[in-house]
Amino acid sequence: MNPLADPGISSVRIRACHGLKGDFRLPGDKSISHRAAMIASIGIGASRVYNYSTARDCQNTIECLTMLGVPFGRDDDGSFTVEGVGTDGFRQANACLDAGNSGSTLRMISGILAGLPYCTQIQGDESLARRPMRRIIDPLEAMGARIKARDENFPPLRIFGGNLHGIEYALPVASAQVKTCVLLAGLFAAGRTTVIERTPTRNHTELMLRECGVELITEKTPEQMRISLTGGQRLRPLREYTVAGDVSSAAFFLVAALITDLSDMALKHIGINTSRTAVIDVLRQMGGQVLTGNQRVVHGEQVADLGATSSRLEGEIELSGPIIANLIDEIPILSIAATQLHGTFTVRDAHELRVKESDRIRSIVDNLSRMGVDVEEYEDGFRIEGPQKLHGARVDSYGDHRIAMAFTVAGLIAEGETEIVGADAAAVSLPEFFDILSESGATVGRH
Predict the structure, then answer these.
(1) Domain ranges for the chain
(2) Residue-by-residue pLDDT tens, the chain, 447 positions
(3) Among 93, 119, 276, 380, which one has the highest count of C-beta atoms within 10 angstroms of its own C-beta?
C-alpha cells in the first residue's frame, strides 16, 4: 500500500516494550528531496531521482512545481523523472499553489516564484497560515519582487515576480530555508546575489547547486559565511540522483533503541551531512551507543549506516547558541531521551521552536507533564532533570509530525497505555513510521 494514499489514522495506542530489533532503509531526506525537485526543475534536461521522500510535505512540492508546468513522471522502480525547464520555461499556474503543511515548500519555492514575470499565489493549511513569512518577504522585495501577505507576514502570499537584481543579504535568523529561497531567486536575478550567515545552517542547497554545475563561491571567516552566485547560469540536470535517508527521521528510531532494554537497530544509507548530525553528537554525549559505519560520499553528501543499542544515558547536557540551528528538528525526540538521562537536560536559545508546525516548546512541556514528567518551561526552551518514570496518558500531536512521533517513542517506556491523538500527522514527514516501529517489535494499535 502506498502510505500517501492512506487517509490516515486519527490516533495510535502504544504500550511499553523492549527488544526492538531490525535493519531498515529509510525514505529519502525531506530537506534534500524538496531541493532535488526544485533544482531539477530549474535545470535544463531530464533528471532521475531515486529514494525521494514519501513525506506529504515533499509531495506538496512536486504538486506545486507541476502546476508551474514542470513535467514529473513516476517510474516502476519508485524513482521519478523531472524534465527541467530552465529559468525561463515555467508557466503561470491556473490556480493558487498549495504548500499544505510544508514551510519548506512555501519558503523555498517562493524564491523561484519571485523570478517569474507574473503573479503567483501560494497558500498552506491552517498551521502553515500561522507561520511567519516576513523572513523571505524582506529579501525578495529587496531583489525587486512585490509580495502581498496576510497581515504583511503570513500566508497566503501573492508574489509579483520578475526583473530581479542581486543583493547582499545577511540572514537575521539562522534558516536554511531562507538561505535557499534567496539563492534560488538569485539564479533568476541580474548580477551577483550573496547570502551571509553568522550561524552555519544545513548546506544541501549549495552541494546540489554545485552538482548541477552552478559556480558558487563560499568565503568563510570565524565570524560568518558568505555564499554567492551570479544569475543567468544554466543548470545541468541532476541525472541519476539518489537521496540519502533522512537523519531527522532516523533520530526517532535511534532514541527508541537507546531507551528501551535489549534493543539493537540498524539504519542503512543515512545522510550524515555535518550540518545535520548534531543529534548524533548529543546522543553520544549522553552516553548513547550510536555507531557509524560504511561512510562514503554520494553526490557531495556524506552518507553512512547507523546503529544504536540500549544504553545508560547520563551527563549534564545544555544546548544553546549556534548548535540549536543544527538541532532544531530533533529537539522533540531529544526531550524524550532526556527523561531517561541520569542528569539534567537544558535547552535555551530555541525561540524558533515556538513557530514550527506547533509551538513545540509548549507541545513538549504539555505532553511530558501529562505523562508525569516534571519539566520546567522557559520562553526559549525547557529543562528536564532525570531519570523520571513516565506514565501512559492521552497526549496530543497538535498536528505536528515530530511531536506525534516523539511521543509514540515516549509510549515505549511508559507504564500503561499511551494514546497519541492526531497521530496521522506523522505522514507529513514519515508515513512509514508506525510500520517500521511495528516491524522492529513494538505493538502499535491504530484507530
Answers:
(1) 3-28+245-446, 30-241
(2) 233 334 445 899 999 999 999 999 999 999 999 999 999 999 999 999 999 999 999 999 999 999 999 999 988 777 899 999 999 999 999 999 999 999 999 999 999 999 999 999 999 999 999 999 999 999 999 999 999 999 999 999 999 999 999 999 999 999 999 999 999 999 999 999 999 999 999 999 999 999 999 999 999 999 999 999 999 999 999 989 999 999 999 999 999 999 999 999 999 999 999 999 999 999 999 999 999 999 999 999 999 999 999 999 999 999 999 999 899 999 999 999 999 999 999 999 999 999 898 999 999 999 999 999 999 999 999 999 999 999 999 999 999 999 999 999 999 999 999 999 999 999 999 999 999 999 999 999 887
(3) 276
Q: What is the pTM of this model?
A: 0.91
Dihedral (CA of 357, 362, 365, 369) sign = negative
User: Which CATH number describes the domain made up of 30-241?
Assistant: 3.65.10.10
CA angle 180, 182, 184 (to 5 degrees): 65
Q: Which DSSP string corresponds to 288-303?
A: -EEEEEEEEEETTEEE
The residues annotated with a catalytic role in the active site are 329
CA distance 355 to 357: 7
- Into which CATH architecture does domain 3-28+245-446 fall? Alpha-beta prism (3.65)
Q: Which position has the grid cell 548529543?
A: 282
| Fold agreement (3-28+245-446, 30-241) | yes
